[in-house]
Input
Amino acid sequence: MTDRNSTTDDTAATLTSGSRRRALKTLAGGAGGLAATGALPGLSGYVQAQSAEPIRIGFQVHRTGIGAAYGRWYDRTTQAAVARINAEGGINGRPVEIIAEDDGTDPKRGAEVIEKFVNRHECDVGFGTLFSHVVIGSSPRAGELKLPYFVVSEGHHVASGMLNRYTLQPGITDVKSQVQAMAPYVANTLGKKVTMLYADFAFGHDHRDFFSEAIAAQGGEVIARIPIPPTETAFTKYFPKIPRDTDVIYHVMVGPAVLTFVKEMGEFFGPSAPAIFGFVDSLEAVDINSPGLEFLEGSYLWEGYPRYAQADQTEYDKAYREAVGVDDNGASVSDPRDVSTYAHMFGCWETLHVIKDGMQACDYKGPEDRPALIEAVEAMSDIPHSVAHPQGDKVFNGKTHQVFGHQYISRVQQGRLDVVHTTSIEDTLYEDEVDYTTQAL
Amino acid sequence: MHPRIPLLNPMWTSTTARRTPRVTPFAGFVLLCASPVAYGHVSEQALVLLLPTDVYATVGTSIVILSALALAGLPYNNRAATPPLSDEWAQIRGPSIVCSLIATAALALLLVAGYAGSRDPLSNLLPLAVWTVWWIVLVSLHGFLGNLWRHVNPWSGLVHVMHAKGVRDGFASLPRAVGRWPACVLLLGFSAFVLADPAPDDPSRLAVIVAGIWLAALVGASAFGPHAWFTRIDALSLLMSRFAMLAPLHRTSTSAFALRIPGLPLTHVADYPRSHAVFCTLLLGIGSYDGLNETFWWLHHIGVNPLEYPGRSALILTTVTGLLLFNLLLLAVFLLCIATGVRLAGRMQPPKNTVRAPGKVSTGLMFERIAPTLVPIAFAYHLAHYLTTFLVNGQYTLVAISDPLGRGADWLGLGHHFVSTGMFNTPSSVKAIWLTQATVVTLGHLLSLILAHRVAEHLFSSRRQVVLSQIPVVIFMCAYTGFGLWLLASPKGA
Output
């Protein structure tokens, strides 16, 4: 649990199992090779690999369909990460090539894309899927074709055990751990009597169920659950259902009506509202200064990664923003109106660095080493805070194929989001629901 | 609508003993992109919902209603002959042939790019050229500049060269009775592809499809002759030539340029069969359905949660069925309006010089003449529907043109251009975009109303009859204005 192996000063993964010896050997060899050949930033780093084939990473990207705008930022982050990895010598001395395939945010196409990665493009791994239903539609095919499939979806489906040994989520935490980690702060700082307003479908139900259990463990209680139909665009009639003794309103609304929801909630309560807590998912890629959102002033939001550069900004965050082209407000450097999906897209950056570490750990040569890559990633445990992992340090659970990390609670203050609480990783942990390592490779 | 997959390992215990795994859209993010080219953004949608769109829609509809009343108050004026609508495909020559040959070569290069280039549809030039440059930009330009497609289509030049080399064309004939029905069928087929196909912008797949269409059209144009093919069978050429009638500038018989009321030739279609009227109605139908099938309202009625849209693959049959039913419904409602108008106007003899067959003005005759006046609305919908897509995918197109091989070139000097959707994130820009769309939609209806009134003046011999015949049509168009503006304002989720 304590050995730290890295080929760069900022990238490391601690290895825990039988693959450690092999990993150490590989890393030593890799580092030596790089040193001998002058593995400096730039293409000159592809030493022993002048004639080597690139590492092909199949990028399953939502270019069209309902995930398109998020696909745009996932693509931008991915390109930035690959540029950095290549500038530092690639992986095992080989350049990384991204093969982007649009899945249309469509599960059936997702499975077809996986097949293309294997049969047409000869990709070494698949990577980058965002929407849960596409992950669930694609994962079985990845398992059948034995293609390591690194998803960046935030869904609980990986850790729940419903997928397979070839599907991993090492770069972004799952919604269950995120919701669970909010409960201590909500109960101890904002209040113990919580009313939940949530979109009445699976997304909202997950929040309802995970949070109800977590707040009860903190001695709190969800005193009212108010489901709101997904197609609703007027909300005033729901607010009178909020009990008067509510300490905290927990809202998880998504979709185009979210500004209307916040505006009408603000108009309903006026200045005497209970504490308001929500997930930034509702407002991802939305300017926090949009009309209607002034009612969020003073309220609290979960953030997977703080959108606004904080007073104690790390060098890692600074370097990451610069590489992706995002300013201190979380918007594109080329257009301050173009707000990024900052709370989530870091998952692409971090996942690619995990792939790099895994491939270096197992001395990945080609598709025949895919099982070894799975084992190498499963062997990872502690992932230190670094440029490769700018969101924070993490712990990867090789059995459940899910990473766990810090969560952030920010407060809306003067039109920006300021972090008021950072959870511990322990707050996010829950009992294993699967051991994928028992499945055959 | 999503698959419910049993949890393989329900180790996690909670108040629910056995959980159904959640097919959760990535944290519920909903950013919308429907057809291969349609593009939406949650910020834009959210900001539109905060606009007083009901007030704007009322104003737009009122303008159309007041205009209809004003038209009804005008004195009867059976104007002198309008230049008849004509399709001039047989007349291309000289520079047009060269342009067409260049277009053929460009298409060949695009097909190679599509098949062998980037797999990313927003980096590969083929899907960008097809869906952004051709379907959005070129089609839209027709309404302002006239029939460009006649000069830049990738067949005419080749057919001409083949003809000059002695290759016989036009060896097959299309029976007159066939009319424009093939174009009607192909138009619905094209619309079904745009709206229902799971991957209409997959570069290599699109390359195969476009190559197949190109080859089929070449064979068709050779077999039936280019005039018959491009004016009676090829739906997209017919679509563009209809939109071209809206160009305010046109060439007179002396080759001089002159101004005209946009769409004026659409009021003189005496030589066109009923299938042409159906085609024009379908133009409106496919555009309207393109907007409708993205709305929360529609998705709710087909049992789809717009916030966890299951993907196009799951809805192919539903989308195609909806397309056909919507167009049938539109045809039925429009015909009912026409029939009611004819009945209101009574049995009067039409002026001899404007009616194809002597006799009373029948529902069929009025339908043939009035339906082409729907084209301005269809064109307005095209402009309004694709405006936001153009604003984003136009940027991707520029980037791809600047670096067509994806090797880091910068032919256009764009530098490191990040495609932005920032225009959808501020109230002022969203309001400007929405009002532009709404103005275009309103103007389209207004123009249709004026053209329909003019057609009625051709058909009927008194002001009273004109007004009476137009009452149901005016009601239809006013209601359609409200419908079009509602479409613009509605939250969308597909």
Chain A is about 35% helix and 20% strand. Residues 1-45, 47-51 of chain A have pLDDT under 50 and may be disordered.
